[in-house]
Design a protein that fits this description.
By secondary structure, this protein is α/β, with parallel strands linked by helices. The protein contains 15 helices and 15 strands.
Length: 377
């Protein structure tokens, strides 16, 4: 990556231009750039005309202000330098597949991602959090991206808050009240249209998964074709699907529930989101109780209780036989969900054969037509 240093003004702009036009970089590291004048900016403008898109990273606050005021943030792809923070000694609020959430202070939390989690995905999560907030979805405000050791993180607001999972664990007498709030949040999420096209559709998200290299390595083309056929049948919908809608990803702040962890947010059919509740609160605790307790903040038996109450209240089904059929339907969508996400989990190559042999081939493929019918409603 091409690096620029010090101060660039009229005295050294000609030399800067000569070096830059010889190198013709598309990515520039500005971590050591202290100042740039209009003469230097004109050189950058000339570079964009020569090579097209130019990305400038690690820009200090002072230099960013110059670029922003002059309109160069709309000409260049400018990324600010990340501030560095430490989470040493900070309390853990939740831990999931993509990272860990820590409390920084009374007003902020930080989600620290796995070291191998791409920055593009983190940027996308911030954008989705903003889109949800602007649309009126109760969600915490995302602040800046930060560097935490070898990892990246996003800082969120969290005044006097804790996760819904911890709140239920610490105050079981008010379980029904918490579940009612949980259902109300789901209903709000699943009924509020979001017109922001920065949020991808569930169909596009799943199609990209079905066609990725991991799937082609482990599945037959005929199996991939069936998965894509199921996805294509899905109803287009503008309301949001959170994708990981469990109590560990919901903050309780001053009596109000607000969403965090927006990395898997899409626009799609609500039933797909409800199936993630089945996945995390009904199915997963049976075999992964320790991992689920870390992620959700509840012991396995309490997860099951909360899940059952949520699904009964959300569906409004009171007849036991009808509720059993409803649960079977969610179990089928859950199986499809796990298959589609199997390449995005730690140790995916170890889990793939288990998922393929226990969920894809005996459950999803034989019920492809049923899934198409459910997801097209």
């Amino acid at each position: 990556m091409y690096q620029i240093k010090g101060k660039i003004d009229s005295t050294n702009a000609p030399e800067f231009e000569k070096e830059l036009m010889e190198a013709l970089p598309t990515e520039i590291d500005a971590s050591e750039l202290e100042y740039i004048s209009s003469a230097g900016l004109r050189v950058l403008l000339k570079l964009t005309k020569a090579v097209g898109d130019v990305t400038v990273v690690n820009v200090s606050g002072e230099v960013y202000e110059i670029l922003d005021v002059t309109g160069f943030t709309s000409i260049l792809n400018v990324k600010k330098a990340l501030r560095e923070i430490s989470v040493e000694g900070k309390s853990v609020l939740g831990k999931g597949g993509n990272g860990t959430v820590y409390r920084l202070d009374d007003e902020t939390i930080v989600k620290v991602y796995r070291p191998d989690h791409p920055m593009e995905a983190i940027d996308r999560e911030r954008a989705y959090a903003k889109a949800a907030f602007v649309a009126g979805i109760p969600s915490v405000i995302a602040y800046d991206m930060v560097k935490v050791g070898d990892s990246y993180g996003v800082v969120y607001e969290a005044m006097n808050s804790d996760t819904l999972g911890h709140a239920i664990a610490n105050d079981p007498e008010h379980l029904d009240e918490y579940v009612a709030k949980y259902v109300a949040l789901a209903k709000k999420l699943h009924s509020t249209p979001v017109d922001d096209d920065t949020v991808t559709t569930l169909k596009d998200f799943l199609m990209s998964r079905a066609d990725n290299a991991f799937m082609h390595e482990y599945l037959e083309q005929s199996e991939i074709d069936v998965l894509k056929d199921i996805i294509a049948s899905m109803t287009d919908c503008k309301t949001l699907v959170h994708g990981d809608f469990h109590p560990g990803n919901i903050m309780l702040q001053d009596g109000e529930l607000m969403l965090i962890d927006m990395g898997e947010v899409t626009r799609g059919v609500p039933i797909y989101d409800v199936a993630t509740v089945f996945r995390d609160l009904i199915s997963a605790p049976r075999n992964n109780s320790d991992i689920i307790e870390q992620s959700v903040g509840l012991k396995a038996d309490k997860c099951t209780e909360v899940g059952q109450k949520f699904l009964a209240m959300y569906s409004g089904i009171t007849d036991p036989a009808q509720f059993e059929q409803y649960m079977k339907m969610l179990g089928l969508i859950y199986a499809f969900n796990v298959v589609m996400l199997m390449s995005d989990v730690p140790k995916a190559t170890q889990r793939a054969p288990l998922i393929i042999n226990n969920l894809l081939r005996p459950v999803v493929l034989p019920n492809a037509e049923v899934l198409k019918h459910i997801l097209s409603k």
